[in-house]
Amino acid sequence: MSVNMPELLIEFFSEEIPARMQARAADDLKRLVTEKLAANGLTFASAEAHSTPRRLALVIDGLPERTADVREEKKGPRVGSPEQAVAGFLKSAGLTSLDQCEQRDTGKGVFYFAVAEKKGRATAEVLAEIIPAVMGDFPWPKSMRWGTGTVRWVRPLHSIIALFGGAVLEGSFDLGGAQGKLAFGNSTRGHRFLSPDAFTVTDFADYKAKLRDAHVVLDRAERKAKIKADAEALAAREGLTLSPDDGLLEEVAGLVEWPVALVGTIDEKFMDVPSEVLITSMRTHQKYFALLDKAGKMAPRFVVVANTVTADAGRAIVAGNERVLRARLSDAKFFWDQDRKTKLEERVSKLGAITFHAKLGTVAEKVTRVQVLAAEIARAIGADADAATRAALLSKADLVTEVVGEFPEVQGIMGRYYALGEGENPAVAEAIAEHYKPLGPSDSCPTAPVSVAVALGDKLDTLVGFFAIDEKPTGSKDPYALRRAALGIIRLILENGLRLNLTQLFKAAHGAYTVGGFAAADGVATDLMAFFADRLKVTLRDQGVRHDLVDAVFALGGEDDLVRLLARVKALQAFVGSEEGANLLAAYKRASNIVRIEEKKDGKAYDQPVDPALLTLVEEKDLYGALSGAGETAKPLLAKEDFTGTMAALARLRGPVDAFFDKVTVNAEQADLRANRLRLLSQIRATLNAVADFSRIEG
């Protein structure tokens, strides 16, 4: 570190920060401080933020000793301007007389200029102002007051390190009330139990090293890596593997400063409970990692991550956690055993007591509608309609079971277990488990026909219902997860290659509702198709497909078969990416612009048929013939959905179009020739627009 480019070290040391808030808080600290540095004209080389359960830290390297001198100029009125204009300028510039201004000839006259030179300040002074301001602005999701203080922080704050170039900044943070000010310092504390004594630090390297000596791993990524590696090593020692759980790993890294992984045992009597329930109970309530055997099944072992080292190598900690787990899993086993005494079908009537939405009826009514839709979709895709109807009937029944009441995360999954236990068709059981899927871009997409039919029916019913009562997503708000439902439908259709008419399905879903106050079916279908166009752009963008090409195909209207639409879009993308396509697109835009300008000037359209008798030049005759030929060739290819062949037919227009623009004067002196040539250009537009609206394509 160079002498004239010191380092800033900040640490806010407090009681335990909730794990879910730590990573975001570290990002917020870095953002707020660096924004205020920039606002004060301070540059830096690097900024690095850290979080542990009891501290937020930030190190910024390469700051200057002082802010730069600044010369500010403000242009005023012309010399000789009215007194009122001069007085307003002086006031805005903070000056009292024109003697404090310069007069300059700008080439457009002599003007007054106010020049102010601001000397730079010591960076330490600026930092002493920035840190309390950042703390006051800190956007904690939840915060608290403590003691007699009036200021809010996530948890009671104990100390603040504020070092610049190794020296403590002169400043403090006012806690308010009788608590007074918490002065900046150079001391902190290590692990709450293993190294509770205070120690001082001189810079970031010293701070990080001393924290490690005091049983604190500062770097969150390092803590995560250690937890994962130690847990995997313990699993391997047992002949097992660690069940992947990135979310839990993230959370546990926010619960410990000195991670110590330990392995515990699950009583065999609990192992007949579905593994999803066991894992959910362990991760949700106890933050335990599950272990798997060689077959990929859950093993009667778990990993708990302690935040301390004990003299007995963690035996007491493991025993205590095993005791707590037994109590938790006893409840889960009791619920599991009780639930199996009542059949799923007997539970369906209880869904009438659960409101789906105040304007859309109960979950029982939703189930009735989804049965109708699932059967219709099943018939369209060649699935077993009776199985789809049965699966739809039972799909929500596990919502009124004890296990799902305790662990909502396993809804659907439990329905499959209960259905299989009752001897239901395996396809029905699988559809119950999968009908919520896919829940997001990383979730698996159902492929079994019955599962696909029920999953589509459930999502279509939801989308149509909420659009019909005008509860559409707005901006970033989407309380009913309608964007996710639409993306799920798109994935189900495209990944399974389903040839479905979405508009018909929207109307069928609309017709299944019996409640009043709905928007008309046609309007809902139109709104939903526009909504799906936007969602499709999101999906295809991830596949490298341009959004304007999706727009170009949707703009044709009447295209609601997503498989066909995608094939058309991909063929269009390949076409405009080729040399012929790119040139033809440029020619299309040139032709369209000419026609548009001339139509506006003449006050009439030129979309009438071309008169072959008025074609005088070889180039315009060739273009007319090529356009007619391309249109005739494309028509049967489009009907056969051979979009690549259609584009190839259009590509043959490039030569005649280029020759036309090279040799033919569109705005001929003879009015009839001019009008006919404008109609020819209009035919270029019409021929290409049969495939897609080329005006929507960028480039």
Structure classification = alpha+beta
Which fold does the CATH topology of the largest domain refer to? Answer: Hypothetical protein af1432
Count of DSSP-assigned helices: 25
Task: Determine and state the CATH class of the largest domain.
Answer: Mainly Alpha
How much is the radius of gyration in Å?
35 Å
User: How many β-strand stretches?
Assistant: 18
- The portion of residues forming beta strands comes to 5-15%
- State the CATH architecture of the largest domain: Orthogonal Bundle
Q: Quick one: overall form?
A: flat
Give a short synopsis of this structure.
With 699 residues, the chain is an alpha+beta fold.
Furnish the topology, listing elements before pairings.
Elements (H helix, E strand, L loop, with lengths): L7 E7 L4 H21 L6 E7 L2 E7 L8 E9 L4 H11 L7 E5 L4 E9 L4 H15 L19 E8 L2 E2 L3 E3 L6 E5 L1 E3 L8 E3 L3 H10 L6 H18 L3 E2 L3 H8 L6 E6 L9 H12 L2 E4 L5 E9 L8 H25 L4 H4 L7 E3 L3 E2 H19 L3 H10 L7 H5 L6 H9 L4 H9 L14 H20 L13 H14 L6 H11 L8 H21 L5 H8 L7 H15 L2 H24 L15 H22 L3 H9 L2 H10 L7 H19 L10
